[in-house]
Design a protein that fits this description.
167 residues, alpha/beta, Rossmann fold, four-stranded parallel beta sheet, two-stranded parallel sheet, 14% strand
């Protein structure tokens, strides 16, 4: 939070928290004096605009944190599932191909269970989004890009996924 406040004081126009747990988001929003969003907040809001959604990720230790953010951001009724890849996280993340393969399989499971969109849960997973999107019939939301779109809208005073009506 100190870095964010310092950046705001130095004149940046907005801040994007680029960790999927959105650490410090509420405090930054309260004290920074510039528009602030996080990649989980923006990604969930964007996914919810498609209807019911699922989140896919590779880190089992984040399950409770992610589910807490889903509740905090008001999307519990829209979440179909949180799917986490099987196996050792380091092995899944060891190559772009293994990461993409694991996430694509999860995305197909989400489609089969009725999700209308899939949110990739983590900035480092963004590299796999094109491969996941190519194999999945649903919209696949990349959280860093969703955060950037949301922040740009906040900075320009436009409606954002955070303020727009949910489908």
């Amino acid at each position: 939070m100190t870095v964010g406040r310092s950046l705001a004081a130095d004149g940046v126009g907005g801040l994007l928290v680029s960790a999927f747990g959105d650490p410090g988001l509420a405090q930054l929003r309260e004290h920074a004096g510039v528009p602030v969003t996080g990649i989980a907040e923006a990604g969930m809001a964007e996914a919810a605009r498609h209807g019911r959604f699922s989140i896919i990720t590779t880190t089992p230790a984040l399950r409770d944190s992610i589910l807490g953010k889903v509740r905090d951001y008001g999307h519990a009724g829209r979440l179909v599932s949180l799917r986490i890849s099987d196996g050792d996280v380091a092995a899944v993340m060891s190559s772009p191909a293994s990461m993409a393969e694991a996430l694509a399989a999860l995305a197909l499971d989400c489609a089969a269970e009725g999700a209308q969109a899939v949110l990739v849960g983590g900035g480092p997973l963004a590299a796999a989004v094109p491969a996941v999107a190519a194999s999945c019939p649903l919209p696949v939301i990349e959280p860093v890009a969703a955060g950037a779109r949301c922040l740009a809208a906040l900075m320009s005073g436009q409606d954002t996924p955070l303020s727009a009506p949910v489908a």
